[in-house]
Amino acid sequence: MKNNYILCLLAFLTSLAVSAQDGNSCLNAIPVTNSFYTVGVVNGAQTSTICTTSTTDTANNAEWYVYTAAANFTVQITSNLSQNVGADTRLHVYSGTCGSLSCVTGNDDVSTNNFTSTATFAATAGESYLIAWDDRWSDAGFEFQISVTTPTPPAAFAFTISSLTTAGDNRATVDMNGDGLDDTVSVGSSNISINYQTATGFNNVNIATSNVVNRPFWSLAAADYDGNGFTDLLYGGGSGVTFMKANNTGTAFTEISGSEYVFSQRSNFIDINNDGHLDAFVCHDVAPNVYYINDGNGNLNFHQGADPTGVSTGLGLVTNGGNYGTVWIDYDNDRDMDLFIAKCRGGSTNAKINELHRNNGDGTFTNVAAMPGVNLADPIQTWSTAWADYDNDGDMDLFIGASSFSNGGHKMMQNNGDGTFTDITATMGPDIGQLGTDIENVPADFNNDGHVDILTDGNIMANNGDGTFTRYTTNIPANGAIGDLNNDGYLDVLNANNLHLNDGGTNNYLKIRLVGTQSNINGIGARIEVNSSILGPQIREIRSGEGFRYMGSLNAHFGMASDTIVDIVIYWPSGAVSTLNGQIINRLMTITEPNTTASLVDSQDDELLIYPNPVETTLHLQLPTFHENMTYSVFDINGRRVLNAPLTSKTVEVGSLNKGLYFIRILDNNRLLVKKFFKN
Amino acid sequence: MRILNIFSLLFIAFVLTVSCEKDDYSPIENPISPVIVDLASVPYEKLSDYQFFKAPLNMLEPEQGVLEYSLINKLFSDYSIKKRFVWMPEGEKATYVTDDALLSFPVGAVLIKNFYYDNVLPSRTRRIIETRLLFKKTSGWEFADYVWNAAQTEAILDLDGSFTTVDFEKDGIQRSVNYRIPNLLECRVCHKSDDTSFPIGPKPQNMNMVMSYLDGEKNQLVKWQEVGYLEETNATVIALPNWKNPSISLNSRVRSYLEINCAHCHKDTGHCSYRDIRFDFTSSGTDENIGVCEEPDEDLGNGLTHLIRPGTPARSTLYYRLNTNNESERMPLLGRTVKDEEAVQLIEDWINSLNYNCN
Q1: Which pLDDT belongs to residue A149?
Q2: Helix B250-262 to helix B341-353 angle, to the nearest 10 degrees?
Q3: Could you give the CA distance from residue B117 to residue B80 in angstroms, rounded to a whole number?
Q4: Separation CA A500–CA A518 (nearest Å)
Q5: Contact B47, B146 (CB under 8 A)
Q6: Cβ–Cβ below 8 Å for B183 and A407
Q7: In sequence order, what E strands does chain B have?
Q8: B residues 319-358 near A, CB within 8 Å?
Q9: What is the DSSP string of A549-569?
């Protein structure tokens, strides 16, 4: 009996020792080192924090291990071993402590034909890392290997998944409460869940709304279209469009749903008629595009196609639509916003041909994509294009992302500065050929080196600054809304299920937030130029709605590398120009629009002379020098811009104006020449 | 009475004898069809204006010249039931093109498709939701949609589209759908080839079935020829497998399902021809065309590696899209708001039955 008792006690004690580290929970994680291990069956406690980017749902069970680094090592954990043929594993690696885990890395599938997992991370001496293998796909046993090596240089782009409280579909990284900090926005059928960014982390508020039929499944756009200081939302739904207008404290939303059938795709806020009030634009998949003109009192009125009470030329008139991705940009640098439509359609039809609608400055738009030299009337099946100044020469280039290769592949078009574009895809280098098809293409400088990169379908095409791009794909978020969610000056990505925080680096940055006065309050449509000693010029625009589905920050973001002082010029939609020289970096600047009329002071006759005055139809200009890239604007007596176009000759046609007093202003870079005149 | 009966029998026998001798019979004058379709003024405001059906309208009892037809494989529309009819002007008929191509209809032809639910709760009655028309003008096919009133006495022209809630019981399961009545633009998305509008259903391969008529059962294509709605032809037409028939191979059933629910967009001239899949039955016999081991163009972010991954429905995009109601992910893109659960099960079973590896 005594022997049996001792044996039982020993067995009990042994079992205790075994269960203390049986891998069935985080607290009981099995210590591991540089070796091989066998997982019998995945049946321990689950992990609720998911570190993999390709699959983001939780599993039922996990097996737990813990690795403690003796020094700064590079650690690889893998189940991609020959003895694991046919295995299907999923791996998460955490720092922190049980109950308060943070993702370091993770992996689901090594490739589309190999469902084992491999992940590598940089371990810090003395730190412990929890490892969880879960049964998302299979609970069958397998072996894995930990291999430890001396560290390799850090990846150029690295993101860390950060947990976030959300309810609904994640759609935006945009400032919702007017403090300049980007917040996250998630939308459900009867709620809007906002994580307000604060200096100490996120403050989650889930706001109940009416039950909406038109959910932002296809796209979401955001802007303060009634100018009350709180950001409003546009839901692009498959059967219609819904606006959610924020109240005057940003604590509730009023639903405004149109009765019109709209098969929404990309949506944007933009001041189409340049009256200082934000309008809305929504791509229509199967009909001419629709747009909503602001009546000046915060009401948006529906228009479609060519409408003399809206936009007389319309904004994309193809009967059967094909309108998928739109972005408003100033492609010809004449200081007004043009519209590029990325188009897509099957069958033999013109609906798939891309369109570039040039803003003529007089309320009309012209599709110039097929004009000589423009070369943008492309049948490529594209859902979004990424417009940015990739070569930092002062004008907007575009990367056209192919959603299917059946009518052409990805393309990089360089803006020649004169309204024409050249196909420079080949100069991007070989990595462009590794890209698959995609629907999301968005420009952003992710490493703050002063060269704009492209996020496209789980790849960052990193701009090397010499025309070539290098593809990075490890742990890159597939797509998403782009903003700065932790105010560290590095751009982060919010996608369907995860917030991916940019690991950052040591480069400088500058963020600029605009507050319009005569222009719309968000400054949407403004062109910002910064100039710094080493990087030279960089340009951005304030845009509401890029890529296909998501809404990014309304702040302009510049990577500044090691430059520390910048000169800034802002061309406001109203025509006003701001110049701020010698500005320091590494902050968010808020810049308010100056009064336009204050700048409309007659220049000297030896700078600008106009005749005849009064004038009936044609105004003649006399200037000492005539440059390319000069633009002219005509303002009425209230400072509202009524004409705007590139200055291509020494005459300006003013016959379309009503009788009255006006100012003509010539913009020569950021030098202003003004003369008052009377139209008969 | 007895004498009358004998005469009736003799008369009927005489008629039958005459009508069954194809070579040299004189056709009995058909009674005039009361249907009104004036191509210059359609679509009419009310469904009853066409006089397709006898009173009461909701019994859908066809007038002379309005012929009920059916399809072997039917489109899934949120579990609604369809009653289809065709009418053509006097003396006009459709012609056969190929087994897998739409019949060529004459100008003036009208296709009528009624959508209804039985066992609508709480009263367990029938509710007709809408009647869609396709009529062929000289300029091409045009659409009209008629939405039925709650009293089920009339249906009114409405091209704007709308939603209506339907609670019903089917096969013992209670369901509620937010049924979508399409806007005119939605019709054009599916019913087209390139930019030209067309019907989808009436292809010989999907019509080659036995149908019950008032005077008995008959092969549908034969019936159409007999009533003069289809030119006489000696073509041997294939019959598509019925996807609901459990004794047919899974692969055949899947291909039939894809033909009627998906091929109108996923064909050479369809809305999404730029996706490499081809779901028309004629094309879908190869792995490449149906999507086995083909990678998807769009990354849905859920570990989906192929359109169809043998043995693994959870990693198959096709299965995922049929199994979701998310507006921007579901397939078909239009025409349903809930899942076709039987079809999802069929796809799952079929994918599980494929036991080879992608390279």
Answers
A1: 83
A2: 130
A3: 5
A4: 36
A5: yes
A6: no
A7: 67-69, 81-87, 110-120, 125-137, 140-148, 155-157, 160-170, 173-183, 192-193, 196-197, 210-213, 216-219
A8: 326-328, 357-358
A9: S-B--SSEEEEEET--EEEEE
Over residues A70-91, the pLDDT tens digits come to 888 889 999 999 999 889 999 9
Q: Give the bridge partners for B163, in sequence order.
A: B180
Residue showing tokens 């009358």: B4
β A508-515/A588-592 pair status = parallel
- Residue range B279-313, pLDDT digits in tens: 999 999 999 999 999 999 998 878 899 999 999 99
Contacts of A406 in chain B (CB under 8 A): 273-276
**Would the CB atoms of B192 and A347 count as touching at under 8 Å?**
yes
Find the mean pLDDT for residues A490-496: 95
Q: Which of A260, A320, A455, A456 to mutate to test the interface with B (most CBs of B within 10 A)?
A: A320
| Class of residue B40 by CB neighbours under 10 A (exposed 0-12, middle 13-18, buried 19+) | exposed
Q: Model confidence over B134-189: pLDDT tens digits?
A: 999 999 999 999 999 999 999 999 999 999 999 999 999 999 999 999 999 999 99
Type and span of the H or E element at A25: none
CB nearest to B274's CB, from A113, A137, A346: A346
Residue in A54, A347, A351 closest to B193 by CB: A347
Residue B193 at interface with chain A, using a CB cutoff of 8 Å:
yes
A528-544 core/surface letters (b: 16 or more CB in 10 A; e: else): bbbbbeebeebbbbbbb
The secondary element (H helix, E strand) that includes residue B139 is: none
Measured between beta carbons, the chain A residues lying within 8 angstroms of B185 are 261, 263, 286-287
Rounded CA separation A71/A127 (Å): 9
Q: Which residues of B touch A112 (CB under 8 A)?
A: 295, 305-306, 358
Q: pTM of the predicted model, to two decimals? A: 0.85
**Residues 239-278, chain B, touching A (beta carbon < 8 A):** 265, 268-276
